[in-house]
Write a structure and sequence with these properties.
This protein is an alpha/beta fold and 279 residues long. It has eleven helices and twelve strands. It folds into two domains: 4-99 and 265-278, Aldehyde Oxidoreductase, domain 3 (Alpha-Beta Complex), CATH 3.90.1170.20; 107-262, Aldolase class I (TIM Barrel, Alpha-Beta Barrel). It has helices spanning 9-12, 17-22, 44-53, 81-115, 132-141, 159-165, 168-178, 191-199, 212-224, 244-248, 259-262, and strands at 27-35, 39-40, 57-61, 67-68, 73-80, 120-122, 155-157, 184-188, 204-208, 232-236, 254-256, 269-278. The strands form three sheets. A six-stranded parallel sheet has the order 6-11-10-9-8-7. The longest helix is centred in the middle third of the chain and has 35 residues, at 81-115. 35% of the residues are buried.
């Protein structure tokens, strides 16, 4: 998790020229942040931390994870006018980005669980550089699983690992030798590779870019070999809101979706000054 104050650096490299020229010191404002559209709120904790660091008082706020309506106030603050303007864009960016991710995550989860109430919807590492903690936290606030936060957060054998090491079985053997505590996941592209991975003792099989009919074939193969109950099966690659239900209906345990964090549309927020007084 990055130091939140470092997020202000882009705006404050040379200070706030306009505010310093126009706004007299000592002015106190009351202000509020309002959502211009409905969604799932995220980023309030981060915004309040930045505001508090700047010495701005929080008069009231909604909670992260709440469903909000268009026109609803999500934060009310009071403090030095110059400092409020200093943090304005950064907190709006945090709220907009994180609420957009949380809202999309909730939409995916709700649609998936109409088909299978037990399905897990997970994120990927396709996150904004330097912003992964916040992207994944936002998806979690929308009800989704964070999957791996980083490369050290679990063992996930991918196609390039297999090419370098030489075989699926050898990759799994080496991973098992290294740790008996961590679960081992492997990415495969063909039903036969999934079967080999299951026979080699893997814990989780990621079916990468497999169409739904191929996934069904893979699950049937695992069932015939009495291996289906021994592994979690995850579908990943090319999954969107239009085809999500087809993937969930195959019977997989998890769907992981890059566009949750890669392509989420931001929610629109604005900060409005309510009153201005001299300090």
């Amino acid at each position: 998790m990055r130091d939140l104050r470092s997020l202000l650096d882009e705006d404050l490299v040379f200070g706030d020229t306009t505010t310093q020229l126009l706004v007299p010191s000592g002015r106190i404002v009351k202000a509020f942040v309002v959502s211009r559209e409905p969604g799932v709120l995220a980023g309030v904790e981060e915004a309040t931390q930045l505001l508090s660091w700047a010495g701005i008082h929080i008069l009231g706020s909604k909670r992260d994870g709440e469903t909000i309506k268009a026109g609803e106030k999500v934060l009310e603050v009071e403090g030095d006018a110059r400092k409020v303007l200093m943090v304005e864009r950064t907190i709006l960016n945090l709220l907009g980005r994180m609420s957009g991710v949380a809202t999309l995550a909730k939409e995916f989860l709700d649609r998936a669980r109409r088909v299978n109430p037990n399905i897990r919807v997970a994120t990927t590492r396709k996150t904004l550089p330097g912003f992964r903690y916040y992207d994944k936290k936002a998806a979690q606030l929308g009800g989704c699983d964070t999957h791996r936060f980083c490369l050290g957060d679990g063992i996930l054998i991918k196609d390039n690992h297999i090419k370098i090491v030489g075989s699926i079985r050898r990759c799994i053997e080496k991973a098992r030798e290294a740790s008996f505590v961590r679960k081992i996941e492997i990415e495969v592209e063909k039903p036969e590779e999934a079967l080999e991975a299951a026979k080699s003792g893997v814990d989780i099989i990621m079916l990468d870019n497999m169409p739904p009919e191929e996934i069904r074939k893979t699950l049937s193969m695992l069932e015939r070999e009495n291996l289906r109950e021994k592994v979690l099966v995850e579908a990943s690659g090319g999954i969107n809101l239009e085809n999500l239900e087809n993937y969930v209906a195959t019977g997989v345990d998890v769907v992981s979706i890059g566009i949750l964090t890669k392509s989420a549309r931001w929610l629109d927020f604005s900060l409005e000054i309510e009153t201005v007084t001299s300090g």
